[in-house]
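Handout, section 3.2

Students often ask what a structure token actually looks like in practice. Rather than define it abstractly, here is a full record for Threonine--tRNA ligase. The first block is the sequence as you would receive it.
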Amino acid sequence: MIEESKNQEHRPLDLVRHSTAHVMAQVVLSMFPEAKLGIGPAIDDGFYYDFDLPRSLTPDDLEAIEARMKESIKSAYMFQYQEVTVEEAREIF
């Protein structure tokens, strides 16, 4: 995804929210392989993700997703961040 950062003051928090959305998507797909991913943007007070699932998530599902997200984060997967110009990003992607 190529996007130009508009608000440098909130950029670190936006990166955390964006990365957390990716962690959640990974966990949901591992628990529900048939899930289809929608959008999952960072928003002003967090993030959300749309999933197309064969059934609604239950409170127990949400607790399990949260627990697995915490496990995933503790495993210290590497997130790489590279700041580039819009032109450089277009060349990469």
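Discussion prompt for tutorial groups: The two ends are 8 Å apart (CA to CA). How would you have guessed this from the sequence alone?
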